[in-house]
């Protein structure tokens, strides 16, 4: 009897203690927010770790540009945001409204809508599922309601993006009987995004809109703005077979010239090194007996060299001994894993690259295999000499390599533009494009769309194809991406490998060159204004999105073209720069649907009217990838040269104008190679076009004296007759 009473008492005491602990630990306490830049707030929960995504990347906000975006109110009801540290982990909850859709959470390949997902954000190669394991699992999401949320933690963050239902939810759905009620749902309505960060605190950032694109722009500018590649980075890239010798490369480069194909960058794969996997970071002198002369010859032809590396160090590397104390407990392919958070590891590594390669003219790197695959990368039990955990290093390794390699090349006041297989939050400003080994064309396009939500660049690289048709379709979309590249490291393919489509492939490679003034200006907008050059339709005005569950029953697209856009995610068409809508064709397709946002749209090639806020069906034939231009669109073009113009070289510009509305375009100009633009050495030229009947009146503002002006003769073309 007495014992039973005691037990009851104990139980009561533990409940009281639990409730008290909850109150004291601030169960679901609101967060204190500090405005750190106009429209950006920082909240601190618990004790955040000092090593995080922003310290790893060293990102510095572009405060001036953020000021131009203007003041904004906190975009969410603050009392509905809650956080708590329990069990050494940080629990965070953000509210979700009924009609809200979510985008982002990193470089996903198969889905654009993220509401309803359960993810674990973990740097990894892409394994065929959108589960959070990806090359850039950026913990940033954007809401269709026009705000963004970023978790600044270098941790494997778990996300329940609108799946959990709390018993105290003000929107608690009515429970139903599954046996008798057909409207019972296995996934009942959830009104929150919940995240679990395995650390005893975190920094959280909230970005205001008002539009989703504004939140993305604020996020990008907060990270320093997007990268501004050198002009040559936007030309054509061909990666050589891994065992090619200097002579093989020279032959291939000559073949490009003889056949009239553009070429700006040649990439060498692992075979340039005396040993790879793990690497020596030294030339293989049997294949490349005179690297300096070899690079000099390429440069004379206007071609840059990019070198493949992965950062794992062979016992035969000249700096092996020096770096060994500053490497992880575990190896990758038996190579040492430098702790790049430590200057003692960076110095020997980057000195070797600088002395042996960059100083003789190497333009940049392809930084491979920093993403992982659990079977070859260091395990999470590995120790790093800095004391940062293996998990933190996994989440930031790609960032660290991008950061310090860019800094190394910047010492020469030289821009770079390379490839990397891992990135993360904070990496927006790095001049690197993500690629991978996966090869699904459709999914490559969805990744391109999603890259715009997470401040990274992605290339749907082309390697080989089963048919000429597939080859051409892949090349066509690759030409409308951040890096136009054939990666022939294993296949040895060339642009002309499929004779049946050779003519078209060449036309598209040349189109890439002709569009350089447009691409370059759009990247400048990424840098100075934060607008991603390649982005989802959902960021476009006049394009709507709603959660899938919103509508039921069949919709008649002819009567209501937006029904589809509103319910189904659009993951096979995207915006490229200010004015272009690109709708790739995939092998086997002869026609496809294109959802045109509200407003008039015109065919890029002919200028003909294509539609206005409707779903159209196009049958473009093999010669074209469907591309549409917004009303009033201006596309600056240049002649189809085989190499990007050099610093200061004058280039004639053709201004193409589409539609009816008066058009405005800001054309960016600088030396195209150095960082002098950071000191104001650039020009924005304002282009204006008005249509008068079937003629046009155009003007271009003068270049500011004493600043770069590479614009030669300007001609004007009225595309829409
Ligand atoms: C892969 C990479 C390929 C190629 C290859 C060379 O990991 O994704 O593009 O570089 O390594 O070994």
Describe the overall structure.
The chain starts with a helix and ends with a strand. It folds into four domains: 1-30; 31-172 and 185-222, glycosyl hydrolase (family 31) (Immunoglobulin-like); 236-504, TIM Barrel (Alpha-Beta Barrel); 634-718, Immunoglobulin-like (Sandwich). The longest helix has 23 residues, at 2-24. It has 721 residues and is of the alpha/beta class. The protein has an eight-stranded parallel sheet. Strands 1-2-12-9-8-5 form a six-stranded antiparallel sheet. Strands 3-4-11-10-6-7 form a six-stranded mixed sheet. Beta-D-galactopyranose binds at residues 242, 269-270, 308, 368-369, 437, 487, 489.
Q: TL;DR of this structure?
A:
23% of the residues lie in helices and 23% in strands.
SSE inventory with pairings:
Elements: H1 2-24, E1 33-37, E2 40-46, H2 53-57, H3 63-69, E3 82-86, E4 89-95, E5 102-104, E6 118-123, E7 133-134, E8 140-143, E9 147-152, E10 157-161, E11 192-197, E12 201-208, H4 212-222, E13 236-239, H5 246-259, E14 265-268, H6 291-300, E15 304-309, H7 320-323, H8 343-356, E16 364-367, H9 390-410, E17 418-420, E18 432-434, H10 441-451, E19 457-458, H11 468-479, E20 484-487, H12 502-514, H13 516-529, E21 534-536, H14 561-567, E22 574-576, E23 580-582, E24 592-595, E25 600-603, E26 609-612, E27 615-618, E28 627-630, E29 634-637, E30 651-657, E31 663-669, E32 683-692, E33 695-700, E34 711-718
Parallel strand pairs: 6-7, 13-14, 13-20, 14-15, 15-16, 16-17, 17-18, 18-19, 30-34
Antiparallel strand pairs: 1-2, 2-12, 3-4, 4-11, 5-8, 6-10, 8-9, 9-12, 10-11, 21-22, 22-23, 23-28, 24-27, 25-26, 25-28, 29-30, 31-32, 32-33
Helix pairs in contact: 3-4, 11-12
The structure holds beta-D-galactopyranose.
């Amino acid at each position: 009897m007495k014992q039973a009473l005691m037990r009851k008492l104990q139980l009561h005491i533990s409940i009281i203690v639990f409730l008290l602990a909850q109150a004291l630990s601030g169960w679901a306490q609101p967060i204190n927010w500090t405005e750190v830049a106009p429209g950006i707030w920082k909240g601190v929960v618990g004790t955040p770790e000092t090593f995080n995504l922003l310290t790893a990347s060293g990102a510095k906000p572009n405060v001036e540009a953020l000021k131009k975006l203007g003041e904004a109110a906190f975009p969410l009801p603050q009392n509905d945001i809650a956080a708590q540290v329990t069990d050494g982990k940080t629990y965070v909850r953000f509210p979700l409204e009924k009609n809200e859709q979510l985008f982002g959470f990193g470089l996903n390949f198969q889905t654009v809508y993220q509401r309803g997902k359960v993810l674990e954000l973990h740097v990894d190669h892409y394994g065929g599922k959108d589960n959070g394991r990806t090359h850039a699992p950026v913990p940033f999401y954007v809401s269709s309601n026009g705000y963004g949320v970023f978790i600044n933690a270098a941790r494997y963050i778990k996300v329940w993006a609108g799946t959990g239902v709390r018993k105290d939810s003000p929107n608690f759905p009515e429970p139903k009987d599954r046996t008798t009620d057909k409207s019972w749902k296995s996934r009942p309505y959830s009104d929150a995004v919940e995240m679990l960060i395995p650390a005893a605190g975190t920094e959280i950032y909230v970005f205001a809109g008002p539009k989703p694109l504004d939140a993305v722009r604020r996020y990008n500018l907060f990270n320093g703005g997007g990268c501004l590649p050198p002009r040559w980075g936007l030309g054509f890239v061909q990666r050589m077979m891994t065992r090619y010798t200097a002579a093989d490369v020279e032959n291939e480069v000559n073949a490009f010239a003889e056949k009239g194909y553009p070429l700006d960058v040649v990439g060498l794969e692992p075979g340039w090194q005396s040993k790879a996997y793990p690497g020596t970071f030294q030339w293989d002198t049997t294949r490349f007996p005179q690297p300096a002369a070899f690079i000099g010859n390429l440069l004379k032809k206007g071609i840059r060299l990019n070198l493949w590396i992965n950062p794992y160090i062979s016992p035969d590397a000249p700096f092996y001994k020096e770096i060994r104390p500053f490497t992880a407990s575990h190896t990758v392919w038996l190579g040492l894993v430098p702790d790049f958070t430590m200057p003692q590891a960076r110095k020997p590594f980057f000195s070797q690259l600088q002395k042996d390669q960059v100083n003789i003219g190497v333009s940049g790197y392809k930084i491979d295999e920093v993403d992982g695959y659990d079977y070859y990368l260091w395990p999470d039990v590995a120790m790093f000499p800095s004391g940062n955990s293996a998990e933190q290093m996994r989440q930031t390794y790609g960032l660290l390599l991008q950061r310090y390699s860019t800094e190394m090349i910047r010492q020469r006041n030289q821009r770079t533009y390379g490839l990397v297989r891992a990135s993360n939050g904070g990496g927006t400003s790095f001049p690197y494009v993500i690629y991978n080994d996966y090869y699904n064309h459709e999914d490559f396009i969805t990744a391109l769309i999603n890259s715009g939500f997470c401040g990274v660049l992605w290339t749907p690289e082309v390697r080989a194809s089963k048919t000429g048709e597939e080859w051409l379709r892949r090349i066509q979309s690759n030409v409308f991406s951040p890096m136009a590249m054939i990666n022939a490291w294993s296949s040895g393919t060339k642009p002309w490998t499929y004779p049946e489509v050779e003519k078209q492939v060449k036309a598209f490679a040349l189109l890439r060159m002709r569009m350089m003034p447009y691409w370059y200006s759009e990247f400048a907008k990424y840098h100075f204004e934060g607008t991603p050059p390649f982005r989802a339709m959902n960021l476009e005005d006049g394009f709507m999105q709603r959660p899938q569950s919103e509508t039921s029953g069949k919709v008649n697209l002819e009567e209501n073209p937006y029904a589809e856009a509103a319910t189904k995610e659009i993951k096979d068409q995207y915006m490229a720069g200010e004015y272009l809508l690109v709708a790739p064709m995939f092998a086997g397709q002869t026609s496809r649907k294109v959802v045109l946002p509200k407003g008039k749209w015109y065919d890029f090639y002919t200028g003909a009217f294509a539609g206005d806020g409707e779903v159209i069906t196009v049958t473009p034939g093999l010669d074209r990838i469907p591309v549409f231009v917004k009303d009033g669109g201006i596309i600056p073009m240049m002649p189809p040269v085989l190499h990007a113009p050099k610093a200061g070289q004058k280039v004639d510009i053709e201004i193409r104008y589409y539609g009816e509305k008066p058009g405005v375009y800001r054309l960016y100009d600088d030396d195209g190679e150095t960082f002098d633009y950071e000191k104001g050495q650039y020009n924005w030229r304002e282009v204006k076009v008005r249509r008068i009947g079937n003629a046009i009146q155009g003007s271009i503002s003068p270049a500011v004296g004493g600043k770069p002006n590479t614009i030669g003769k300007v001609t004007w073309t009225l595309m829409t007759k």
